[in-house]
Amino acid sequence: MPELSSIKEIIDKYGKYTGLTSGTSMLPLLHQGKDTIIVVKNEDRLKKYDVALYVTSYGKYIMHRVIEVHDDHYIIVGDNLLKKEYVTDDMICGKLVGFYKNGKHYVDCENSKGYKLYSRVWVALRPFRPLVIYTRRAFHIPRWAFGVIKRKVLRWKNK
Questions:
Q1: Is 97 helix (H, G, I), strand (E, B) or coil?
Q2: Cα–Cα distance measured from residue 141 to residue 139, given in angstroms and rounded to the nearest whole number
């Protein structure tokens, strides 16, 4: 039996991928090497606030949030980033449906009211992200201080 070599192949064959996160672009939501994501094959077009897993033309997998939906593309940004990306449907591998925080607490991205509130607030505050990011860096404010609100919202799970 041939071994599957890519996330896209796993999603195409089994309809789902589960694995640890890598990178810091989705902070404060997802933490590198600590949180386990569950990505499913997307049957329909993505919606605003969905977190898409897509593959670039050079084979890199990226997971960022949809902030705008257009007929022929999406505008996507990482929760910890400022730069917009333009992604087409053929680049999309799947969408995030849930994740385990530190391998323990499960967050359902499709049904959790706390997660939905976090997504909407985080996208609405996107114009202020440069101020938050540069203030934190300038004054050496620890990243955890900005995660306090996110944790409190996510603990308001499934209400």
A1: strand
A2: 5
Q: What is the pTM of this model?
A: 0.82
Helices H / strands E in the chain, number of each = 4, 8
Cβ count within 10 A of residue 132:
13
Strands 36-40 and 92-101: antiparallel
The conformational region for residue 139 under phi > 0 = left, psi -120 to 50 = alpha, else beta, is alpha
pLDDT digit string, tens, across residues 53-86: 999 999 999 999 999 999 999 999 999 899 999 9
Check if the beta carbon of residue 96 is closer than 8 Å to that of residue 63. Answer: yes
Crossing angle (nearest 10°) for helices 113-124 and 143-155: 140
Asked if the model's pLDDT at residue 5 lies above 80, the reply is: no
Residue 146 CB neighbour total at 10 angstroms: 16
Which residues are within 8 A (CB) of 50 and not within 5 positions of it... i.e. 6 or more apart? Answer: 65, 66, 95, 96
Q: DSSP string of 33-51?
A: TTPEEEEE---S---TT-E
